[in-house]
Queue: 2 jobs
Job 1
Amino acid sequence: MQNNNKRENAMMSAPTPFDYTPLLAEGLPPAAARWNGFPKYNFVGGNNDADQVPVEKLLAASTSVLTREGATLATYGLNSGPLGYRPLREFLVGKLKRDAGITCTADEILITSGSLQGLDLVNGILLSPGDTVLIEQECYQGSITRLTRRDVNVVGIPLDKDGMRIDAVASALADLKAKGIRPKYIYTIPTVQNPTGTILSEQRRGELLKLADDYGVPIFEDDCYADLIWNGQRPPALYAMSKTANVIHIGSFSKSVAPALRVGYIVAPWNVLSRIQAIKTDAGSGALEQMVLAEFCAAHFNDHVPKLARGLRIKLEALMEALAEQFGTAAEFDDPPGGIFLWVKLPDNVDTMKLYQAAQAAGIAINPGTEWSVNARHSKSRLRLCFASSSVQEIREGVAALAEVCRREFGVPLRSANMERAKG
Amino acid sequence: MQNNNKRENAMMSAPTPFDYTPLLAEGLPPAAARWNGFPKYNFVGGNNDADQVPVEKLLAASTSVLTREGATLATYGLNSGPLGYRPLREFLVGKLKRDAGITCTADEILITSGSLQGLDLVNGILLSPGDTVLIEQECYQGSITRLTRRDVNVVGIPLDKDGMRIDAVASALADLKAKGIRPKYIYTIPTVQNPTGTILSEQRRGELLKLADDYGVPIFEDDCYADLIWNGQRPPALYAMSKTANVIHIGSFSKSVAPALRVGYIVAPWNVLSRIQAIKTDAGSGALEQMVLAEFCAAHFNDHVPKLARGLRIKLEALMEALAEQFGTAAEFDDPPGGIFLWVKLPDNVDTMKLYQAAQAAGIAINPGTEWSVNARHSKSRLRLCFASSSVQEIREGVAALAEVCRREFGVPLRSANMERAKG
């Protein structure tokens, strides 16, 4: 009795934890799940090849720049102001000219905390709830969810092997104009599109720019995979080709150097960039990362990127071979000209959202098509496989394990690769 | 004629630059002005003492952590997941226990890109337009502008030498309740308040927590100056004293190590932190800065901070002496127990917004009181002076120059220090 009373008293006096639920803003995403480490076979996320992080050169860059300028860390924005570390912007002026044909000054570049902050900032100056934008029908999930969270209407433009279909852009713009709707922008990843891997042809770029001018709709060009092209050949950026400054361009060092560094950039004319800078209220992006990157890139970027791309190409080939071996004709895909992902079509009866769940339970992470598309019907049997962070061995094992899950759940591929070989 | 025609043709064919104006979202802040470097006498911003950036130790930390773990930069979030680099969170578990009395686990800490991102994230899960919050009447400008931009109603609570006045909190909560309004939070910088420099007494902390519990209003505790206290003595954090987990706590390394690094943190129970993590869609904060900080702090934080504080105290004394010398009794202030700023009252006829403009023209940057307060009448003749980034010599010269401007504009101080001395 006494014990019971004690326990009761303890329970009565234990304070009730505060309930935040009634105070939460409306429309929040669900609570995050606890992170439990990476799955055994990880084919998601823009992670890169750990063996290709230029650790020694980053370390040397860190040492030299800290020795020379470390004391400037005492000042927000170093001695460069709110646009970001000036030597990094100056490196970008040269890089953008050489690689993308862009002519700009260091004062038309804003360094951001990854290109994701770039997305947020551009959206921040242009979008209000109820607005309309055009995007590629298959598209980076982070761009789609950002638009959804802002209650923006999304018109998806289908792609073919040359990227966004310009006839579809023309129809969509005409339809919207007939309804009195002026879209806020046309968002495109024209150079190694995510997830399809396509490169918008130069001719289509010209046509897209003309449409954008005709309809008074700016282009939002996301170029963050453009450095990783096997043959190093790419058309000029839309930003470079525009005659009317109707393009806002964003890019990143996540794919070309290291994603964990969180350094991206926005290129825009000052009349736009000054509006963007005004809503970048973070007191600057991380200075140490900008300093180390600037120091590294000035000396090594041009050598590092082709080497990185060669290594990624080897992994892509391993992935394509493993898919052919394990899935046979059940897995359809184009050999992409660059990037870190492969967009795969499975037979129509495969629902990749269900495959994703079953694979997750088996320690395999994939991106289901519907999360990377605004056309659920088109993407239902498609999936995105990232190949940069796994080893060739993991790619082979992971694809075999995925085929096993897919066979169990959907009956395709019909037989395992080994059985087929044994029969053949 | 021919020349004119040519020019006319060229003008006609020059494409009109795209006009973004009609596409901009409503309610944007004005365009940013071009950055033109720092003023000669810079008494604004949370900049720190360049001579006290521990460059060599940061460099050693960078070298050891990159050598050991540099390859993990290939992965978003390193191998630590979305809450941030685990060794840094583990350092914070010990630091928060020792310095602030907070008991928490590494999974109740989210690393942010500066405490400004912490402000945005906490606001993001709690605030909608039309909501009401309580804040200290004199308050960090970045917190005030964030609330204004979200169309949130702000109720200012006056402060005295022991910080926020709890009687005023009680009245405000009762008034709001009578109107059927439940505020979303009580925001406070209880430990070295910005700009007043006050420390909320332990007794008041208990009273504030009780009021918060009684009214069902959580406390948002911003502790980002709390490391810089001359005698190292501080009351426990509100987070530590709460029995009901009704406090969200944020902090920063900006003031204790280096502001340009952009590393802060949020401490909250997981049921709150999981909502916050869900809206942190930036793919992680900068990894290199987290790694270098964790490595540096584990070895040197406890030695570095008191040394930094001693240096800041010397600058504060120089500032107070210069004010006494140049302004005499016209400048009133309390000797703050820590921090990097002094909150100064000038005679009632001085409008510090006008003083700010005149000083700016003379190469002197100050924070006018009305930008750091929600009570324009109370703050009109007050100003904030940051003393961390200027040298003692610059402080002396800058205060003399400011007194000169103030005398010219407002007739106070009556005579220059030299003249007074000559007479005396």
Job 2
Amino acid sequence: MRYTGRLDLALICAENPAGCVASGVFTRNAFCAAPVELCRERLEKRRAKAILANAGIANACTGEDGKIRASEMARIASEALGCPAASVLVSSTGVIGTQVDLDPVVRSMPRLVKALRPHGWQDAARAIMTTDTVEKMASARLDLGGRSFTIGGIAKGSGMIAPDMATLLVFVCTDAAVSPEVLDHWTRIGADKSFNCITVDGDTSTNDSLIVLAGGAAGNPPITDIDGPESRAFGEVLASVLRDLSIQVVMDAEGATKLIEIAVSGAADRESARQVAFTVANSPLVKTAFFGQDANWGRIVAAAGRSHVRLIPERVSLFFEDLCVFKGGTPVLGEETERKASEIFKHKEIRVRLDLGLGDASFTAYTCDLSFDYVKINASYRS
Amino acid sequence: MRYTGRLDLALICAENPAGCVASGVFTRNAFCAAPVELCRERLEKRRAKAILANAGIANACTGEDGKIRASEMARIASEALGCPAASVLVSSTGVIGTQVDLDPVVRSMPRLVKALRPHGWQDAARAIMTTDTVEKMASARLDLGGRSFTIGGIAKGSGMIAPDMATLLVFVCTDAAVSPEVLDHWTRIGADKSFNCITVDGDTSTNDSLIVLAGGAAGNPPITDIDGPESRAFGEVLASVLRDLSIQVVMDAEGATKLIEIAVSGAADRESARQVAFTVANSPLVKTAFFGQDANWGRIVAAAGRSHVRLIPERVSLFFEDLCVFKGGTPVLGEETERKASEIFKHKEIRVRLDLGLGDASFTAYTCDLSFDYVKINASYRS
């Protein structure tokens, strides 16, 4: 499609002739890509047989022609698979404003269909990468009423990442039989607990898509009661797979050298905790301090202070791991504190805890540092 | 105070024994610095005689001790100047969480007072710099009813810059006689038209202060009618000086190689135009593309799309200078457009115009690119 010497087109297909129960959450960006519109429309019926995904070209801001090309991609795949065109979903990622070329899709389709196999996940994970440096995969098993289910997924994403509904390209499949309502419910909640808690650069993509397919090959009586124990167990495992994938995305963020957890507690409500956490997590000054291994807590406090959340400075405490560096409106001074903080800042994974002292609500965001390589990668992405 | 081999303490003092009519706008950061609190309190009376400003230590997040030290700085200056302590304002900029050392203030005060002179602005502008590479000064003359007035100001600021009321340290003086109400009115409007339109990194400082002193040495009958022609003329010239200083700040932004104007028009209202403009102006992906001289318009459109402002993609147009690159939801394709866009991206100053096609409101934000040097400067600021 765009890259040479590597895979950049992936086909995911259910063995089940009738296809899967399917759910998805998508970007809230006003300029959503053509394949996102296609998926939103087709998922209204909550069923899908296959997903065709390409890397390198986003098919976003491409007008009517882009829409036609997205739907042509689905048609080409459906003909090769012998299923209705409407049962094929399409996902794209890459440069905005360029049209996808259909020739390579036509040319590659026979090989793609022939190569379909149960253990092809790693190839698919690799084929959807853009600036990612590693493929991202996660899976979990779940035993329920004597039956065993699997939930497995792949993700791509490393820049233009900020939570707003769902993020990036994420495809998750399970052999569990679940009703469309149950799948929808846990897909939304799972996205909220995972991809909606991460940021790399605060930039929400035009192409963010999380699609979950449930084929029912496990043969269980379909899970239909949202509040039942089976549904809850399914939801928890799905969320854990999504969470695993989302953390992998932050760890492979463009130029990132560190994974930073920003845990805000003691907030008046969850929304204000979220707002403080993301203001800190997206602050260029906070992120460069982490890159420089400089325990510059003042920047974290200053970022929290500009979040438009009402704060009482005297009640705020700030911890690096378990080390308190700021309390009661003043720094916890001393060479010992500074030495310990510097030590913590050398770690690859750092937990920042900011307690607002105002209530019981909390929110944890995951972010990374801002390095020379982020600038390097993004100053020359198109060329 | 902190730096060696350069000035880092500035004293600004009115010749007028009674001092000046004074107004100020300050950061909205919840963790505002001790000197900001001091200024806010003292400016309730709308009068001031002098400003003592230091660079290197922000005196923010420093608790009760910090407040005492800010007020001690004012007292030390007032004793040397022979004026009431309450008539001296204090401003600080630099590292958060460190206490200012009063010894150098005491030691330097006789020299500072002795060096007071009408043409010392450049030294003062230099003494308040932190990561700034050039001093920032602006002045304008104004002829009104046969009299001539001067408005002159200095500013510092280069990182942790985002608009929220006022930004950075800015001190402006005029010999015009104006009433406190008139000065307040035009100070607020001037800040809104200048410093509230710029961003470097979206991080609002704990120490942002804009202080305007009007000494009345021109001997005019005080301007007291806010809506009168003299007041309006004064307000316009004050705004132009502030605007000049604010653009100088963006041009000297940490690591910046380009000045970018983001002019959003055709918005339903000013607030939504502002929101779109700043979302684009703060986007790391947009800013790195400018650094890389890559006319990647897709990132600008994507940033606008995530601004939470309701947009109709088909109505949006995007221009680089006068070159239309996106219209009616699709790119204006062609090698010629690409070549011209690339040429524009080599300029040091670039105007981006985004028309939303929804109404008559507009807002223009000024920003800069995000370079290796921004990361370098901020990965090692404290050390």
